[in-house]
Amino acid sequence: MSDGNxxxxxxxxxxxxxxxxxxRITADGSGGWPVEAGRYRLVxxxxxxxANRAVIVRRLLGLEKVISMGMCGPTxxxxxxxxxxxxxxxxxxxxYERLQEAFLARFPDYDRGITVPTIVDVPTGQVVTxxxxxxxxxxxxxxxxxxRDGAPDLYPEALREEMDDVMQRVYTEVNNGVYRCGFAGDQxxxxxxxxxxxxxxxxxxxxxxxxxxxxxxxxxxxxxxxxTTLVRFDxxxxxxxxxxxxKLSEMPVLWAYARDLFQTPGFGDTIxxxxxxxxxxxxxxxxxxxxxxxxxxxxxxxxxPHGREELGGAPFGDxxxxxxxxxxxxxxxxxxxxxxxxx
Length: 343
Hints:
Strand order of the largest sheet: 2-1-3-4
Radius of gyration: 19 Å
Shape: globular
Active site: 48 (nucleophile), 179 (proton donor/acceptor)
Strand content: 5-15%
Distance between the termini: 20 Å
Oligomer: single chain
Largest sheet: 4 strands, mixed
Order of helices and strands: EHEHEEHHHHHHHH
InterPro entries: Glutathione-S-Trfase_C-like, Glutathione-S-Trfase_C_sf, Glutathione_S-Trfase, Glutathione_S-Trfase_N, GST_Omega-like_C, GST_Omega/GSH, Thioredoxin-like_sf
CATH architecture of the domain at 161-335: Up-down Bundle
GO molecular function, one term: glutathione transferase activity
Helix content: 25-40%
Pfam families: GST_C_2, GST_N_2
CATH topology of the domain at 161-335: Glutathione S-transferase Yfyf (Class Pi), Chain A, domain 2
Number of helices: 10
CATH class of the domain at 161-335: Mainly Alpha
Keywords: Transferase
Structural class: mainly alpha
């Protein structure tokens, strides 16, 4: 989601700019953007936890052949995320070098952050939305005509009221809470942020000690949203963002829960640890002026047994896991657990 600002620490408490393009792609097309196979391109970066949500949900629901995916590199400058992983540094579908071009194609005077995930209308090359929270919910509730057979119900209607409350707390206290620690501009702001984060992690520990997933026996979008922060915790947030009361691997319940998800198709196979580390340690130069990327931690422990099956349930309920990712969307073998190389 990072927008390319050169300075992230501005003094006092960190407040996220949450003014996104609110357009939605809907089954009835009432907002001008109808659900349509092949029309839209999801632009993401593997490094970004907010984009990682969309990558996972798209995969779990089997929308890969319906919504194409463009991949930005792990770092960006003040202007924009860039397509430096693609031949010639251009997205092969949009023809853009920078995601910024899609925003300017629709809003010539756009002056806000250029964030991922973003959905782009391929025929016009214009941004549709970068509202990351609504985007993934709409993949579940508006794109049902294109879901794969056996796709999970990630936003069950009967659970939505409670689930919305859980997801809101996860967002404010954990997803954004780690950033509140990392970008705190003074000691008092950091101390408050640190206390809030670990209070929430203790609450999650208690909740997950008796149920396999956040809402019960099967995976929902709530788990996707928590996972993308937990999977980055030891590699980035513990040290870089000073979230260091404990490592995730020292919190037994959350560590086992995170490994359970990591080892589930559609979760761990979207994770590129070297890109994650390169993004945070290089882009946040005001926190890490040397831009040195740490070698550790060893990530092979993500593949160790988790034992969460004892709590019952099934990750996909009555459904089935997604198949393996396509060759062009597969994370390189040396970038997953145990892979310590840098790009």
